Task: inverse folding
């Protein structure tokens, strides 16, 4: 197929574009003429060619990952108005998106398999299903056919080779993201290991990679509401085809919709690879904690989006003698080693963290991380070249004017928020002052405990421990949490979010549960806990101070991992025994009794709700050991 006007820009160098008639020729010619193109393996070239034929870009840019390349892209985005500089900090930028493109769109996210039940449980009652959206091969092709042809017309197509996990590690996976958004390129260069070195690994015979095609698109009308942030919100769609390790995302430039290494590769496609290969790809932070005796363990924790992973991963313990170090804040890939130890890597290279609520008092470590080499999105800006969001120190506002995330002048009396609730910072992980020394260890870190949790204003105690592995799997399966701004759900309803993976499962949740249960046969499984920092009193106030004081909960968990008998049985699981939770030195009075109170009425309703959910959403796919855990819980609650 002949493609006119396809030009090639050698990445990082401001060389004059060359015209070719045929992209195949371009690739062949480049492999001779340009060093970078030579490093594209035949399979990568073939994929790039296919994308060119489909999307018809004006130019091609193969990313090398260099600083010079970033400078080039920043200059381009400045010119297009996509970003503005933040001169108060070093190499920091602010992007304001189209207000219709501010979060993940779960309703427009699909997994494509031959049969529906490979993607989601198919049950008579599941209308609609809430554990993912299935799409047929034909419908996926049609969706692509209706959107992608010519979608990059007039734009540059960027080819981003990236590694999820340390480059070359046995546990890492490679992706090639093709995108028409320079903002995505800059963000991917922070969030993943991207550039030349990844192509070298592919060249060394590891030809496997996940195909990630992304286009911000153009509305059917042909008119962009906000030219500085092109997108097509009406027709946004995010497609995954696990059998081909392929992702196609159209219409959104935001976060998990467009940075395809994150949720699309590391979780949705990742979970299907993990199932095949016998490991776990999870929506979990990883932290190292050292106790006052100098002993260190690693903990992984799954909380739904905007429920506290980044904050826990970087916390500053208020308990004397404890130290927390951060391995990752969002995703964990965990695999048993030959000795049966569960080892985890953080496949990411940066943090895409929620800005609102981040402050010196809640997360000083994040504040020490994010004010250099960072791209902020949808936060407010200040007239002295800085940023502002809800929860940040207000004292600084006395001497500046504030422009909100929509670009309008803002004041504290405005009666609206300055920053979008899902506004974020995108910042390199190695800038974190407490990044763990082993965070890039290709072997991963040993995991001693797994935490599940969510926003539960009522009924659920601060912490409890699973009785055994199957009970722990049941705790993950029955997780619920208040909806947040990370996706399009509006009301503050309590949603089921099993394993914090509801928006991220790559295959049938019933099979996922069976896979989790099978881990017990593969090695030494960690202890499992459920935590809830968000229980509220009758007057609507948080009962627990949270943040650094969550170290008090980690202390109890640490002692349980060490085998200390500091627990008592309860109908829902093991609670700290009387006085076992260290509350000494807490600044405010905490009503420990109310924090741990168990109500028979509440737990009867909760178990009924879980039963209903399993029946409607999981049906016959629910593994028997999980069903048995629910029956046992019901029986214990009945005796309360
Ligand atoms: P994603 O990046 O969307 O996956 O979110 P996350 O799980 O990393 O959530 P994050 O740590 O960014 O926290 C989200 C919001 O919850 C922020 O506004 C925090 O200030 C708030 N938060 C985090 N930890 C606590 C806590 O212990 N107590 C209370 N009350 N709020 C918290
Ligand atoms: C989440 O929503 O869980 C996130 C943010 O971590 S995003 O990358 O947009 O998915
Ligand atoms: Mn997340």
Result:
């Amino acid at each position: 197929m002949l493609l006119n006007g396809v030009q090639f820009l050698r990445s990082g160098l401001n060389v004059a574009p060359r015209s070719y008639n045929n992209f195949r020729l371009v690739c062949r010619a480049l492999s001779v003429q340009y060093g970078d193109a030579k490093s594209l393996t035949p399979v990568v070239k073939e994929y790039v060619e296919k994308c060119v034929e489909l999307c018809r870009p004006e130019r091609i840019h193969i990313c090398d990952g260099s600083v010079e390349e970033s400078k080039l892209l920043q200059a381009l985005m400045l010119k297009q108005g996509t970003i503005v500089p933040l001169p108060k900090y070093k190499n920091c930028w602010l992007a304001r998106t189209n207000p219709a493109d501010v979060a993940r769109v779960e309703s427009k996210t699909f997994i494509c398999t031959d049969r529906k039940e490979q993607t989601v449980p198919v049950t008579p009652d599941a209308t609609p299903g809430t554990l993912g959206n299935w799409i047929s091969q034909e419908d996926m092709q049609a969706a692509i056919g209706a959107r992608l042809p010519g979608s990059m017309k007039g734009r540059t197509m960027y080819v981003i080779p990236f590694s999820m996990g340390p480059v070359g590690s046995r546990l890492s996976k490679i992706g090639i993201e093709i995108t028409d958004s320079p903002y995505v390129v800059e963000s991917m260069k922070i969030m993943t290991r991207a550039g030349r070195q990844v192509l070298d690994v592919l060249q060394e015979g590891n030809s496997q990679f996940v195909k990630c095609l992304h286009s911000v698109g153009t509305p059917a009308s042909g008119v962009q509401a906000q030219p500085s942030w092109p997108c097509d919100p009406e027709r946004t769609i995010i497609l995954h085809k696990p059998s081909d390790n392929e992702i196609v995302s159209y219409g959104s430039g935001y976060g998990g919709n467009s940075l395809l290494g994150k949720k699309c590769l590391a979780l949705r496609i990742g979970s299907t690879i993990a199932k095949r290969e016998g490991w776990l790809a999870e929506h979990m932070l990883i932290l190292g904690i050292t106790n006052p005796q100098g002993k260190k363990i690693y903990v992984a924790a799954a909380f739904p989006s905007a429920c506290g992973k980044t904050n826990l991963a970087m916390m500053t313990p208020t308990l004397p003698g404890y130290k927390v170090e951060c391995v990752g804040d969002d995703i964990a890939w965990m695999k048993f080693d030959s000795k049966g130890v569960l080892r985890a890597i953080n496949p990411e290279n940066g943090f895409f963290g929620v800005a609102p609520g981040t402050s010196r008092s809640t997360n000083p470590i994040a504040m020490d991380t994010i004010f250099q080499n960072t791209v902020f999105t949808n936060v407010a800006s200040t007239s002295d070249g800085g940023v502002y969001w809800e929860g940040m120190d207000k004292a600084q506002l006395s001497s500046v004017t504030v422009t909100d995330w929509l670009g309008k002048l803002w004041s504290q009396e405005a009666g609206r928020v300055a920053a979008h609730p899902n506004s974020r910072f995108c910042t390199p992980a190695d800038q974190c002052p407490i990044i763990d020394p082993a965070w890039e260890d290709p072997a991963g870190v040993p995991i001693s405990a797994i935490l599940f949790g969510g926003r539960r204003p009522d009924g659920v105690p601060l912490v409890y421990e699973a009785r055994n592995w199957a009970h722990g799997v049941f705790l993950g399966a029955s997780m619920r949490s208040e909806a947040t701004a990370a996706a399009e759900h509006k009301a503050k309803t309590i949603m089921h979010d099993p394993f914090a993976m509801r928006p991220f499962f790559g295959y049938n949740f019933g099979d996922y549960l069976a896979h989790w249960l099978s881990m017990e046969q593969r090695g030494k499984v960690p202890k499992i806990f459920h935590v809830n920092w968000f229980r509220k009193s009758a007057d609507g106030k948080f009962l627990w101070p949270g943040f650094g004081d969550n170290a008090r909960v980690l202390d109890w968990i640490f002692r349980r991992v060490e085998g200390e008998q500091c627990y008592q049985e309860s109908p829902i699981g093991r609670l700290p025994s009387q006085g076992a939770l260290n509350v000494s030195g807490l600044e405010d009075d905490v009503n420990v009794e109310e924090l741990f109170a168990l109500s028979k009425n509440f737990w009867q309703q909760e178990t009924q709700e879980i039963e209903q959910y399993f029946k409607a959403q999981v049906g016959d796919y629910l593994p028997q050991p999980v069903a048995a855990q629910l029956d046992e819980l019901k029986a214990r609650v009945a005796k309360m």
Remarks:
- The longest strand covers residues 156-164.
